[in-house]
Amino acid sequence: MVNQKRILVVDDDLEIRELLQEYLSKSGYSVTTAQNGQEMKAKLAVQYPDLILLDVMLPGDDGFTLCKYVRQDSSVPIIMLTAVSDEMDQIIGLELGADDYIAKPFSPRQLIARIRALLRRTQQLQETTMSKPKAIRFAQWRLDPVTQRLNHQVTGQDVEMTSADFALLMLFIENPHTMLDRNAISNATRGREAQPQERGIDVQVSRLRQRLKDNGRQSTIIKTVRGNGYIFVADITYES
């Protein structure tokens, strides 16, 4: 299949690896597997996939360490596989640059829906950025939407962003002075609605604020509407 998307499954449980490989292959994906970080790095050295399913609990380097490793030079979408009751694992994964998470045990249909949504969001983001202006300026920042390069105009410093960071920032830029609730943000960055009591969106916004040095109650770029969502309040100019 010419446009077959490649997925790398990283899990130390052989039964889970085989089950996911079979199910994802039947759903039209090209699937490779790794049982630990060493195998994962070896496969990445040959070719990066279109998406990584990464278990948190691994022997040797755990999923957090491997997520951080991938984010050193790649924005490939990552879905973390976490324990059903461990919210902290989910939050840490998002803070390190994961795009989404799914708690074990999960239904194969739910996982496929997450994968399709994330790959669709990634493809849409790639397509829309090609028609964007040369650069976007706001506050003291300059963003190149094609290269996803974010530069502070005073210090000259470039800021690293994950694909999820970039998707969130573009969502705010395209909807300035508009209150965006958690469902709107989750749909745009993950391709799905937020789950009840889910803290992941707040973690994503907090991480973006850190990138923009926009922390604390005196935020000048992204304001919190308590109990409702967030508003991008900075003025925006475009370079053609």
Automatic annotation (TrEMBL):
SUPFAM superfamilies, sorted: C-terminal effector domain of the bipartite response regulators, CheY-like
Positions carrying 4-aspartylphosphate: 55
Gene Ontology terms for molecular function: phosphorelay response regulator activity; transcription cis-regulatory region binding
Highest taxon, organism lineage: Bacteria
The OmpR/PhoB-type domain, residue ranges: 133-234
GO biological process, one term: regulation of DNA-templated transcription
Residue ranges for the DNA-binding region feature of this UniProt entry: 133-234
Assigned keywords, A-Z: Cytoplasm, DNA-binding, Phosphoprotein, Transcription, Transcription regulation, Two-component regulatory system
Subcellular location, record wording: Cytoplasm
SMART domains xref list: REC, Trans_reg_C
Domain Response regulatory: 6-119
One GO CC term, this protein: cytosol
PANTHER family: DNA-BINDING DUAL TRANSCRIPTIONAL REGULATOR OMPR, REGULATOR OF RPOS
Name this protein carries in UniProt: DNA-binding response regulator
Organism: Enterovibrio norvegicus FF-454
Upper lineage: Bacteria, Pseudomonadati, Pseudomonadota, Gammaproteobacteria, Vibrionales
